[in-house]
Every structure is written in C-alpha cells, then in structure tokens.
C-alpha cells in the first residue's frame, strides 16, 4: 500500500530526527542549554513517543482492516455498530494517558514560573524592528540590530544569502550574559507586540507595549545562542534576530567594564575624511533608516517617503539636522544619534550614489548645531 | 409553506437573533469581565485608576526583618518625544514602610505635550500587594515645550506579600496623548 | 443514520411547481436550496484557487532564502489574505453549500426554512469577499497584521483598515444568517419520523456548528468593532495609553477563533461519518457517541481559547487551567477516530475516490491531532508557539482534513447532483497526487518549526533552506493537482463518463440516507410531500 509506505517514510524521518541532531538541518527540537530547555525537551519527546505509539496502534488497525476487510477479497461486511465495552475502554485509556502527561507538564509550568530568587535583571524592549537591552544592575544599555551583512543582503535581491555567515541570525551587538547565573528577563515593547525567542533557552515570551512580562534563564555552558522575534510585528518582523552570548563570569565582568567605559565615553567628534564619513554614514543609515526608507532611498509608496532627490534631504543642512533630531509624527526623533554619527549620516544622505543624491558637500561632527545635551 | 410552519420559523428565528444580539453584547461584556478576572488572577493590568493625585495612606506594621527589592523601569512608547528615567533604578524596602522615589521626565519637543504614564507590575501576582499612594500615573501629565519634571511616586509594599516574592518590578511607559480627544 | 423509506413518488406534480428561472436571473434571485448550494460550492471553489494562488506566492518567496519576488509588507498581506480568503471564502462557504444541497434532502424537507434569507446570505458573502479583496488595491496595501488582526499592529494598516473591518462584518452577518437558516431547517422542517437521533451525522454536525456560529460570529464582530472605535473614535479597549490592554483583544479574538476552527472541522467529521459507512458497507459505529463527542468538542471549544496565548504572560493558574482543558479535547476527538476505524473494521470495503479521500482524512487529521496534543502541553508550547510547527499543525487539520473531505464530498455527491458519473481514473489520480504532495508540502514544516523557524517571515536563515524548498515543491504540486478537480467537476456536469447513474449511485447507499432514494439528478423541487420514514434501529 502506498499509504503504508508513506507512513513508514514519515516514521523513518521522525526517527532520523531523533538521531541526527548534529546534521546541518535539524529535524527535532533542540535540547538547549538550560535546565528548563532540557525539561521541556524531555516532555516534548515523551508526548511525541506517546503520539507515535498511539499512531502505530490506530493506523495499524486501520491498515490491517483496509488490507483484509475489502470487498475485492470477498470479505462480507458484518453489521455491528455498537460495543459499549470497547467504547468505554477507548475513552478511559486516553484519559489515563492524558493524566500521565499532565503531571510532568504541570511541574514544567511551575518551573517556568519560578522567576524569583534571581541574581540579575535584564530589561528587553521590542521595537520595530530591533531589540533594546538594559541591564538593571550595572547600567549597560544598548540596541541590538540585524548585522550589516544580512541587512544588505536581504535588501538586494541579487545578493546570495548563502555567502553571509549566520544570515538573518546575526546582530551588531549581542546580549551578553554570564553562565550559571539565574537571570530575570523583563519584557516590554515600545510600539507593537513582539516576542523574544531563543530556542536554546527553552521558551519565548511576548513583549507587550505598556506592560511588562517576566521569565528566567540560567545558561549552563558558554556559547552563542541565536533566536528570532516570533510575534508578527510588521514589515521587518523577519529581520530582528536575537543573539545571546553566554560567557564565564570573569569574561563577562570584563565585557561589562569595557562596555560601560565605551558607553560613558563622550563620542569622538574629531574631523573625519570624507570617505570615512561616507562609509560610516552608510552603516548608520543601514541601522536606523533603511527599514523605512529602503536601501535605494526610494521609500515605499504610500508608506514612507523617498529620500532620493528629496528637497528635505538635499536642501538646507541645518533644517535637515533639526528634522532628524526632532522627528515627525511618523518618524522617530533621532536624538539618540551622537553628533559624529549624525554628521556621517547627513553626509551620506546628501551624497550617496546608491540613494541617488549628489549635493557635493559634507559636514564634520563638531559642526553639528544645535547641540543637545541629551543624557540618555 | 403552512401558516403553522411559518409561525414556528418566525418564533425560532426571533430566539436565535436574540442569542446573536446577546453574544454581541457578551463580546463587550468581556471587557469589564477581563478586568475583574485579571484582578483576581493578578495578570498585568493597569492599576485601579484612582483619579486623585494622592490617596489616603493606610498604616501597616513595618516588617524590619524582611527586605524586598523594588526595581523601576521606564519606557517611552513609539514616537513620544520624551526622555524618561527613574532616578534610582532599584531600592530595597521593608514591607509596611512608605517610600518615595522620583522619576525624571523631559519633553524633548518644541511643542507642548500631553502624556499618560501606564504602570505595570511584575510579577503580576504581586500587584495587589504593591500600593501606590502618590503617582504621576494617576492623571495625564502636561509638559510645556522642552519642560523637565521630577515626579515622585510614593508607595508601600503590603507586609502580607507572600514570602516567595523577593523582587518586584514597577514599570512605567509614557504614551503620547497630545492628539487624543480629551473628555 | 436511521431510516428506511417506503416507496413513494418523488415526481410530485400535483402541486403547481415552477421550474427555475431562465438565464442569469435564475442564479441571482434564486431561493432554491439546490441552486444556492451550487452557488456556494462554485464560489468556494473559485476562492479556493484565489487563496491557493496567494499561498503559492508565499511558497514561491520561501522557495529559497533571500527576498526574490515580493516586498515583506506584501508578503504579510499575502499570509493575512490567504487565511481570510481560505477561512471565510473557501472552507466555510463550501460547507454551507453542502448544507444547502444536502440537509433538506437528508431530512426530507422541500427546501431550507428561510429561502429568501438563504439567497441574501450568499450575496452578502460575495460582497464581503469582494470588499476584502478590494483592499489589495488600496493605498497602504491590504491588511498585513495576520488574519488574527492583533492590535496594536493592525492599527498600522493603511486605508484598508475600515474596509477590512466592514468586510468582516458582512461575512459575519452572512454566516449568522446561514446558521440561523440551517438551525430553523433542522428544527422545523424534518419529515415526520425523522427524530433528532435519527438524523444523519452530517446534519448533526452542522446543527452543532450552526450554534457555534451564532455564538461566536457576534463576538468577533464586537472585537473588530472595538478595533474600529479605538482607531477612529478614540475609545481605548486595546490601547494601553487609555487604560486598555492589547492582550484583551487576543482573549476576545480567540474566544471566537477557537470555536471558529471547529466550525471548519465539525462538518468535516459529519461528511466523513457519512461516506465511510457507505464504502465499508456497514452502519456507522457508535452513532450516538459520535453525536455526543461532537457536542463535547463544541462545548470544550468555548473554554480553551487561551491555549493560543500561552506566551502572552498568563498567570500560572490560567496556564494550567487552559492546558488541562485543552488536553481534554483529545478524548472526544479520539473517540471519533476510533469510531471511524471501527466502522471500517470487518466491513466490505471498496476504494472509490470519495473513500480514498476519507481514509486519507482520518489518517492525516489524526496526525494534525497528534501535533495538537503536543501543543496543548503549555510548557512545550513555549517552544512550538508561532513557529512552522503550528503552521504544519493547523494545515494538517485544514488541508488534508477539511479540504480533503470537501473533495470527498464532491466526488460522493456529484453523481447524485448531476446524474452523471465522474471519471474514476482521473479522480484517483487527483487523490494520489493530492495525498503525496500535501505531505511533501506540510510534513517538512514540522522539522522547520522544531528547528526554530518562526512563522510569518518572508525570508529565513540558510539552515532552513532545504526543507523550505521541499515544502515549496510540494505546494506547487498540490496546487496544480487541484486543477484536475476543476476538470472533473466541469466534465461531470457536462456528462462525465456518459454512464447513467442509478438513484443510489453507490451500492446500497439508500440504506444510508434519504438523498439516495431520490432520482439522480434530483428534480428542482424534492420532498414537497414529506417522505414516509419508517423508524428503525440505526442501520447506517
């Protein structure tokens, strides 16, 4: 029977999934690197095997019947249509199986909920379309965007994703955590609902605007763990990955120190050659502007205005600075950009051939006026 | 179609339409029902909107032997042109004792701004034990162009807070309400 | 099913009966249940291809990593519209079409109870679907927030927003009118002796489905109305800034949404329970437990909605409650699968195309049920939720389940409706192509989900490439094989194999339902005089 074969193929594929966890592509759930992810993996396998065995029993019976009880073999139909005993049995047995599943499942729900007694707290904010991480205990605070290579590749249809390392699963600034420390994560969002998922940690949690959710993790071993946003959050929902790097405590402490030093350092406002302004400006554009205005600066008709040939971009420079810093009802205010990045961006916007602009001027970081003393 | 059947059909249709209307109403009834259920279950939901700037302070027995860590986190929603942060990221408190902490907010735009802060507490089940007696979130805040404000929040953690809670996070998100029609 | 029918004259010309109007007007103003059933079925078939084309746009984009064909926003519109068109334009209308054709013939009624409302609900459906399709051409594009319309994201929809919501209202009113009509027909129009517990299971499952519909469609209408007033009239149902909560929308939506998915599967159960006994030449096993199981599933569907929302931050008591309640659904669903298996057991089976589709339905629906059971376990759902694993799950319960059964129903009743036999060879070809390709299409999606691919993304990491390519190949195979069905429908209407079918069509079918006692094709008006039912034991 073709159908039996097909079922066999499915089963073989399933069992392959159990065996070859290290293949290039995975077939089964990852075991992960936390106590929770292991517990959930065990539960997943338990239920999967229950399903496989019930499947074998039910489909086995059915295919036996299909093979033997056919008219072409001269089988004469019996006319029974009820059997209370059998019906009671096949109601009770599934009930017992369900109770058997519910016990470990309840324990896992309780374990997931044990968010207290943590050693550090990280606030995670979902935004269209990147993540913002804030370490409550030491003040480290940064944004985590899709990395440049992926950003460029997915926006240019001729580029080949296979040449990009960790395509769509790499960020410019990963979330760094110490291993074997119980970490509390708080989730919220600044616009729409997002959902933070790193499969190796074992769960996902929604980030709801205006509200805060919590979850905990404790990573067993150092490594790089990747995940993605899992709640549809608009156009670039597929392009806001999550990267978590777990490291030993000493390394982590050094990272915190280095990050804080850099964070507290005033931006370097010394003059840069035009080529540097342009190339750095391209990076600033990719991180902050490309999601709406697109890689060719053409925007999206009906949604986001084009920058190519726009008078706002190529006209008065001071007005452009003010515009970027103040934002509009549709565009966020980019006050967060330090003056050096702003200068780079503006030089790029006005002169980038890929945006179709060529004003032929430039601006240096210390020429940006007015200067805001934004202390965020 | 006989008269009898016609009558039966009309009566049945009337009943079914009534169900439809009731179910439409039920959809709306889920809104207050949700608030009630959330208060019981302690799911994240705005605190009871007490409309006065301060409410009366009930006296609690202070539990000097116990410390609870209270964290403050702040967010600004979408295009709201504000800087907003807690002056102290966290403090350790004794249940039963009143504390006042302050938040800094600034309107970064050249225009007046109306903004509403929405509080949220995590874990949700601790919410009923976290009482605010003074909060900028009770009313919509009005900021002049570029105005800065330091705003206090006065609160107490009810000593009845179950032992298992050691950390509570109070979150505020500011939403721009300048263009919404005020009642 | 239950009845043996005494001989009686079907061609009842003693009353003044007019035939159908001539020309196009016949189809516009018709109040005849058979005409309206045909309209619904043909409309659903067209929409099946419209929604299917959207699915193929999605699968074409996902054929390879990288963005090749469409803008991400259009991709999101496609996933949204594919779901809306398939749910409200294809599956639901197809079952309403079957109900229109079959329920009066199965219960011995001359027509639906409210024929004029019947006509109105069909045309309202057309208007609703056209309206939602028109949003594709509006500034800002069609809705792209998913068919679930979650706020705040849905608030970012462009000009299409109020039109989409008004379309939902129209579709809702249409479904409600259809449901009221079906309930009134079943309650008031049964032939004497056709007691409730003698009704064919298809009628039973539709009765329960109709009650689900009138209970949930108004709630959905309420939810989208709240979205509308939130956006245009400054209410704050779901807007946190005004004291609302976006999660509340998800609760209201899934209060509608979970029963809604059962609206698409319960009539499926009914058709399967009608077809399998005919080809097993045995009465349905456990008729009354089938009825109770259907009712139990319908009841449970109202109290499990938040299992779609395990990760939104439910309190622990909520997680546990919704997990236990959801697990319970496995019991009545299991009973149904066991009953179908027992119906086949010791039968005398033949494997005509309707039976093949029905058996594939039982097997593949059960696979969808298994993944459903896996996802009911709340903690593990923290891994499965919003990945391709759930995409695989619900497509298994909709495509090789609902769609396969609709195909089965087509093959099963087309000879009755047209009086012509379809081409069995092409039918079987259609079946084998469908059953193979549908598995190539959806089975790899389990692997993708478990490996970590989120749903609703237009582009993906390179490690997901292989299975996506396999899935896309399956999608195109499946999509194009369905053209065979169109060919068969047209061919059969035109005369099929030329073989004149009997009134029974299938061997001994008249033991299984009143419709098989009518001529093939049945005259425009049937059972103007109620058939005489001789109550017996359930004989099938």
Write the layout of secondary structure elements.
The complex is a heterotrimer of chains A (376), B (183) and C (540).
Chain A: H1 2-19, H2 35-68, H3 84-112, E1 120-127, E2 130-135, E3 141-144, H4 148-155, E4 175-178, E5 183-189, E6 194-198, E7 203-207, E8 213-217, E9 223-229, E10 242-247, H5 249-264, H6 274-288, H7 290-293, H8 311-314, H9 317-326, H10 339-351
Parallel strand pairs in A: 1-5, 4-10
Antiparallel strand pairs in A: 1-2, 2-3, 5-8, 6-7, 6-9, 9-10
Helix pairs in contact in A: 2-3, 6-10
Chain B: H1 3-41, E1 68-76, E2 82-86, E3 90-93, E4 98-107, E5 113-122, E6 130-134, E7 141-143, E8 148-157, E9 167-176
Chain C: E1 3-5, H1 24-29, H2 33-61, H3 72-107, H4 115-134, H5 160-188, H6 201-232, H7 246-263, H8 266-280, H9 287-301, H10 316-328, H11 330-344, H12 353-376, H13 378-384, H14 388-418, H15 424-451, H16 465-494, E2 533-535
Antiparallel strand pairs in C: 1-2
Account of the protein in words:
The complex is a heterotrimer of chains A (about 375), B (about 180) and C (about 550). With about 375 residues, chain A is an alpha+beta fold. Chain A has helices at about 1-20, 35-70, 85-110, 150-155, 250-265, 275-290, 290-295, 310-315, 315-325, 340-350; strands spanning about 120-125, 130-135, 140-145, 175-180, 185-190, 195-200, 205, 215, 225-230, 240-245. In chain A, strand 6 and strand 7 form a beta hairpin. Chain A is elongated and about 90 Å long. Chain B has about 180 residues and is of the alpha+beta class. Chain B has two domains: about 1-40; about 70-175, Ctag/Cox11 (Pfam 04442). Chain B is about 20% helix and about 35% strand. The radius of gyration of chain B is 23 Å and the shape is flat. The N and C termini of chain B lie far apart (about 55 Å). Chain C has about 550 residues and is mainly α. Chain C is about 65% helix and about 0% strand. In chain C, strands 1-2 form a two-stranded antiparallel ribbon. In chain C, helix 8 (about 265-280) runs parallel beside helix 11. In chain C, about 70% of the residues are buried. At the A-C interface, helix 1, helix 2, helix 3, helix 4 and strand 7 of A face helix 3, helix 10, helix 11, helix 12 and helix 13 of C.
